[in-house]
Specification:
With 325 residues, the protein is of the alpha/beta class. The protein is built from 11 helices and 9 strands.
């Protein structure tokens, strides 16, 4: 992740103090506005966490998100009021490793009701390339690979793998049961329904990507390592996890060689970041461009209105780029 995008811990700590001060100064009407009747007051860090909280919580939760639609989550800056609200929430759902500002604010605030989704599944380390060679999906071996990591240092983009996202969903369901035992049966029901939906999505990807002309896709944002592994694909990131980083001339030459060798056709970019890098590389290498959405937020530019719809659009884009048969 680009260091320039991180918010200094000292600044966050100062904001936490301001946030807690602001919270203390809130009138009773402000506090009432923050609550929603008898519903569990849930704060989600960004869209993938918001989706889980809303689908599993159903009618028993009132969900607010720290990341507004259209805001690149890595660039999020929290207001003092948002930070103060962390201590007032009944339940916080976040994913450590995606948003340093959120991670630091939760740590500094000492919130006891925060659930880190990264601890609900097993994380792995991914570089600019990850995928096919480490998994038995029938794909040819390749020298590119990845390292497995632990929970503290792994790739946090677990929601882009429907199987891992389902694991996280199950953990969220159990944690909501503990937070609100009176509605545990409904949380279990909603979790089962969501996991069934994600199982169907997994099958659609598995079937839709089983037979393709190439297994390699190129992306400006190396967010799809888990997806690549799950379905026997090879992700080639242009410049790591920063979607707007400029690739070096050497990396452009390398991508050109990889595209030619592996018959890659497309450079993917995302909806919440500039497409300049993708278009520059595509022009230099003679490839097409298309959108592969990392689903860090839903906007009017998204190819769908929720997680499942956008993931199915991603599947269609991959099928086209990879030459699905």
């Amino acid at each position: 992740m680009n260091v320039s995008r991180l918010i200094p811990t000292a600044a966050v700590a100062g904001a936490v103090v301001l946030g807690l001060t602001a919270l203390t100064a809130c009138s009773s009407s402000d506090a009432a506005d923050h609550k929603n009747g008898d519903k569990l007051d849930v704060v989600a860090s960004f869209y993938p966490m918001q989706f889980l909280a809303e689908r599993i919580g159903g009618d028993h939760v009132s969900v607010t998100t720290l990341t507004k639609p259209g805001v690149e989550p890595h660039d999020l800056e929290l207001s003092p009021r948002q930070i103060g609200g962390l201590t007032d929430a009944d339940y916080i759902l976040y994913l450590k490793g995606i948003q340093p500002a959120v991670d630091d604010a939760i740590e500094q605030s000492g919130a006891k009701n925060a659930v880190d989704a990264a601890k609900l599944t097993t994380l792995e380390k991914h570089g600019t390339e990850a995928g096919a060679d480490d998994h038995d999906h029938g794909a040819e071996g390749d020298e590119h690979g990845h390292e497995h990591g632990d929970e503290s240092g792994g790739d946090p983009h677990v929601w882009l793998d429907p199987v891992k996202y389902a694991e996280v969903a199950e953990g969220v369901g159990k944690s909501l049961e503990k937070a609100d035992p009176d509605h545990a049966a409904d949380y279990r029901k909603n979790t089962r329904a969501l996991v069934t939906e994600l199982d169907g999505l997994d099958k659609a990807f598995e079937d839709g990507l089983r037979n393709t002309t190439t297994r390699t896709f190129i992306t400006t944002h190396s967010a799809f390592g888990y997806l690549a592994e799950r379905y026997g694909l090879l992700q080639e990131g242009i410049a790591g996890v920063d979607p707007e980083a400029e690739p070096s001339p050497a990396r452009i030459d390398e991508i050109h060689t990889i595209a030619k060798k592996d018959k890659a056709t497309t450079v993917f970019f995302e909806t919440l970041a500039s497409d300049r890098t993708a278009k520059t590389l595509a022009r230099d290498t003679g490839l097409r461009t298309d959108v592969l959405d990392p689903l860090e937020g839903i906007t009017d530019k998204s190819e769908g209105t929720d997680y499942t719809e956008v993931m199915r659009s991603n599947l269609a884009a991959l099928q086209k780029a990879l030459g699905a048969k």
